[in-house]
Amino acid sequence: NVAYLEVLNLGKRLTIELFDAQGRRLDLMQKSNPGLGYYLPMDISSLTPGVYLIRVSDGEKFSTLRMVKE
């Protein structure tokens, strides 16, 4: 299973963290953003069904997204 995270117009190095519902960090990725936006594939095949949080940060700002795996 693969989930795609759409990243738009940040133009900076990104830190992407995946947390479970209890707040435990399950994964940490750092990616360079080419600046115009892209889709970042995330392998979620090892995750059990449930609710997860994805936090994307550029060092100054961050967004937290909710993901449900069925």
Can you give a write-up of this model?
This protein is mainly β. The protein has strands at residues 2-7, 13-20, 25-32, 38-43, 50-57, 62-69. The termini are close together. The model has no long low-confidence stretch (mean pLDDT 87).
Strand order of the largest sheet: 3-2-5-6
β-strand percent reads: over 45%
Shape, please? globular
- Describe the oligomeric state of these chains in a short phrase: single chain
Number of separate strands: 6
Mean pLDDT: 87
**Helical element count?**
0
What share of residues is helical? under 10%
- What's the alpha carbon Rg, rounded to whole Å? 12 Å
Give the SSE string: EEEEEE
In whole angstroms, how far apart are the ends?
11 Å
Low-confidence runs of at least 5 consecutive residues: none
Question: What characterizes the major β-sheet?
Answer: 4 strands, antiparallel
By secondary-structure content and strand pairing, the structural class works out as mainly beta
List keywords for this structure.
70 residues, four-stranded antiparallel beta sheet, two-stranded antiparallel sheet, 6 strands, globular
